[in-house]
Amino acid sequence: MTASFMDLVDVTIVNIAMPSIRQDLGAGFSTLQWITEGYALAFAAGLITGGRLGDIYGRRRIFLLGMAGFTVASMLCGVAGDPHVLVASRVLQGATASLMVPQVLAIIHATFPAHERGKVFGMFGAIVGLGAVSGPIIGALLTQWNLFGLEWRPIFLVNLPVGIAGLILGSRYISESRAPHALKLDLVGMALATGGLLMLLYPLTQGRELHWPLWGFLCMAGSAVVFAAFVLYERHKARKDGSPLVELSLFRVKSFAAGIGVQVAFGVACGIFFMIWTLWMQIGLGWSPLRAGLTGVPFSIGVSVAAGLSVQKLVPRFGRKVLQAGAVAMTAGVLLYVAESAHYGTHITSWQMIPPLVVMGVGMGLIVAPLTEAVLAEVPREHSGSASGLINTTQQVGNALGLGLVSVVFFDALDEGAMARGRVGEAFGHAFRNGMWWVAGVLVLVLVLMFALPRTVAGGGAGGAEGADGASRAEVAAAVPAQGVADDAVREPAVTS
């Protein structure tokens, strides 16, 4: 529980401190993107492998290794005096989180008998919700208070006592467990997937500051070749030992393939929105971190309330229409936000932002809670572990891709002339509206893809640990990375949540 809380707080705490980091370290806008994008990419790349390492070498061992690494990486983030060192430390954080996080549900599954797991998964969901809601507020307070003159650094250093306590408690109370028939590692597949993503995201993120050089376009085109090689290798790996990084046969299930598309597109929309929203409020409007953090509270409440209602009341009765209604609501909230931003300009207040934020939050809540179960509904149970791990990974990939696109949809839209004349608020407002139109377009794509999901979706969470993951999302009050699920954690049909 401590590990899950620490991970989610760390993810949601960073965005609110971005302007302070930029001012203190003199970081460029692309560097700000990499502070979050690097974490998401490293986390996504290592999720499935991290779960398998726990299955093979022991979940307790890998969990403690990941927590120790995460704590050290947090310290390195907190003492970084250079923006590039901070980015490297964030990548290390993401990589170590991919070792730590997948073990959480697997350890719960291995530790508790079936009749007790429902209560534990309920506690897990509550902790996840608390971490998601409190992250931005904690980040705003720590940045605003400027403890010991450290400015933004306490948002990372706060992990040190928490991580040390988690290591002591974990080494004392967690029992070791392994999977009886663990899948083998696929390090080549992981390297190909990560390389392809880097070839796509690096020029996309850096292109604007480098004036879009030719090598950047060639690199992005070359990523398609690497992804093709990845597919071919995964087919070879499946024939060789049956343990590829990605089970490609899953994509023959139409609803699963469409669901993965929904996950990626939804991650893109969230990655764009949360980055440009923070920059607009703090740099464009000149708001303090605390005011920006508190402005997001109505959004968080909307997510939590709608997520709970969708799983318990709405989805069992209306099926996928609930998810589609969520996409429509989110799109409507985005368009309302665009209209308000254009109407009020730099004079917009936190109170005036409440209506679009509540509408967007309700829409997100209707989507995040039942989405995992909808994507997994028609997947054969023997592949549920691989499918669940892939769902979590692709959402992180979408988030990283969205953060990379911020260069195109937001920073490219900044009016340099207005910036030079000191009209920063006007320039950032225009760029914010441009980015929000992109978010609306991506959400329309999400809505279209949802028509391929099953008409009926089981309520109350899925069977197995993926149900616990879905239940946790019902409580998430911000677009936070989903918890990684180790393959073996979702293979047993006896688990219920």
Would you write up a description of this structure?
The protein has 497 residues and is mainly alpha-helical. The chain is 76% helix and 0% strand. The protein is built from 20 helices and no strands. The chain has helices at residues 2-14, 18-25, 29-57, 59-79, 83-100, 102-111, 114-145, 154-157, 159-173, 187-206, 214-241, 254-284, 289-295, 297-318, 320-344, 350-376, 384-409, 416-420, 424-450, 465-475. The model is unreliable at 460-497 (pLDDT under 50).
Structure summarized in a few sentences:
With 497 residues, this protein is mostly helical. The protein is 76% helix and 0% strand.
Average of the residue pLDDT scores? 85
Beta-strand content estimate? under 5%
| Low-confidence spans | 460-497
Which geometry do the CA atoms define?
globular
* H-E string: HHHHHHHHHHHHHHHHHHHH
Structural class: mainly alpha
The major beta sheet can be summarized as: none
Number of helices: 20
Report Rg.
21 Å
Considering DSSP H and I runs of 4 or more, what fraction of the residues is helical? Answer: over 70%
Span between termini: 16 Å
Defining traits:
497 residues; mainly alpha; 20 helices; disordered C terminus
Question: Topology of this structure?
Answer:
Blueprint: H1 2-14, H2 18-25, H3 29-57, H4 59-79, H5 83-100, H6 102-111, H7 114-145, H8 154-157, H9 159-173, H10 187-206, H11 214-241, H12 254-284, H13 289-295, H14 297-318, H15 320-344, H16 350-376, H17 384-409, H18 416-420, H19 424-450, H20 465-475
